[in-house]
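in:
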């Protein structure tokens, strides 16, 4: 890949060893959502050592907002998540997780390292007078899980008020289906609205040898499931982005007893507000099949993350930054999939975008996200840090109305 001799690329390569050190330390010491105490302490230590930041710890849990300001001007928010997953690691790297059953299997260690790298480089720019405006570095906890109130880290950090002044948000995510030196961007909805449902079907149950004397929730659930799966196959436009999947079914404890209750749990995914509402409405209608069959039901919908709706203008900044720094970089266009991303909360009201950063070594099998053998090519780290740095400069210039040189 061609690399332009630019301060962003030169300096990102200069600190490559630090990027790797940060990432490996975090990978070796993963912590689950809402438990990132040591992760937060490590980030605080590294940020304080850089100097020049106004630091707010313990935001939305163990989150950190580190503000770099050099005079009046726009405010840009750069965000990285920092929690790990409850997954056993199956790699044999010397820096593999030391915590059994916990692993950075979604690249949040790399996201945090690259944001630390961008903070390091932009703080050097600020000290040298090359930065005008304010950048808030957002180290976010709990992207992967919710608290008792059903909230992840992003809305909790937003509730603090520390992000209210931000004009534009920017984030990245490592991408194992593209090689190092490539990125993927998408304008508009790019990851899904995430809602979950919990359906409880209640009946009388009874003896398995006398089914005519019982009302059977297992039998009733078969009609509910037929209706549920027909929503996608027969009621939704195949060109629309939306689906419903069942993940759990529980009912009964022994072979000769018809249970009095069956529970069905699943997920609802969509890209638009209209489709999100339509799928819930259709599911509620399907649930109405239960009373005529002799049972009752309780259908609960847990509203989760909104769709990740990338701003076209911010995406264009990312594209221009990438092409400026790496002239022949391959830029893939297209949605990122039906997974969820709570960064969507941050860009629901303010412009912003997330891009996906290729992290796979060419010629090697894909190491899928959320798998025990997930691994990245660490050569992607300086690329991500450089694009964040250059994009931040461009956004500050654009927001202030200054001309951006390509």
């Amino acid at each position: 890949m061609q690399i332009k001799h630019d301060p962003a690329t030169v300096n990102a390569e200069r600190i490559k060893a630090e990027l790797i050190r940060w990432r490996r330390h975090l990978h070796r010491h993963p912590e689950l959502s809402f438990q990132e105490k040591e992760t937060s302490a490590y980030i605080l230590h590294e940020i304080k050592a850089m100097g020049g930041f106004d630091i707010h710890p313990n935001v939305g849990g163990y989150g950190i907002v580190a503000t770099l300001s050099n005079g009046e001007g726009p405010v840009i928010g750069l965000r990285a998540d920092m929690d790990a997953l409850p997954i056993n690691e199956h790699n044999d790297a010397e820096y593999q997780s030391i915590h059994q059953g916990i692993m950075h299997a979604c690249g949040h260690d790399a996201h945090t390292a690259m944001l630390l790298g961008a903070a390091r480089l932009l703080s050097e720019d600020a000290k040298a007078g090359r930065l005008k405006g304010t950048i808030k570095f957002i180290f976010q906890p709990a992207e992967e899980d919710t608290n008792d109130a059903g909230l992840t880290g992003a809305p909790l950090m937003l509730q603090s008020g520390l992000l209210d002044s931000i004009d534009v948000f920017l984030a990245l995510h490592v991408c194992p289906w593209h090689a190092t030196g490539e990125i993927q961007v998408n304008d508009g909805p790019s990851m899904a609205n995430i809602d979950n449902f919990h359906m409880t079907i209640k009946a009388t149950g009874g003896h398995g040898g006398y089914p005519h004397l019982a009302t059977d929730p297992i039998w009733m659930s078969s009609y509910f499931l037929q209706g549920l799966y027909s929503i996608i196959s027969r009621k939704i436009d195949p060109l629309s982005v939306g689906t419903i999947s069942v993940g759990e079914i529980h009912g009964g404890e022994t072979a000769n007893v018809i249970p009095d209750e069956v529970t069905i749990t699943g997920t609802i995914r969509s890209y638009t507000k209209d489709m999100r509402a339509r799928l819930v409405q259709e599911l509620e209608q399907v649930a109405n099949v239960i009373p005529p069959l002799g049972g009752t039901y309780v259908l609960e919908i847990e509203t989760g993350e909104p769709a990740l709706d990338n701003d076209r203008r911010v995406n264009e900044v990312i594209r221009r930054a990438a092409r400026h720094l790496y002239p022949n970089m391959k830029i893939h266009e297209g949605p990122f999939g039906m997974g969820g991303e709570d960064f969507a909360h941050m860009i629901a009201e303010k412009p912003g975008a997330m891009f996906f950063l290729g992290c796979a070594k060419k010629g090697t099998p894909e190491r899928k996200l959320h798998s025990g053998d997930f691994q990245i090519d660490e050569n992607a780290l300086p690329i991500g840090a450089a694009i964040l740095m250059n994009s931040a400069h461009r956004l500050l210039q654009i927001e202030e109305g200054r001309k951006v040189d390509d």
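note: The first strand starts at residue 54 and ends at 59.
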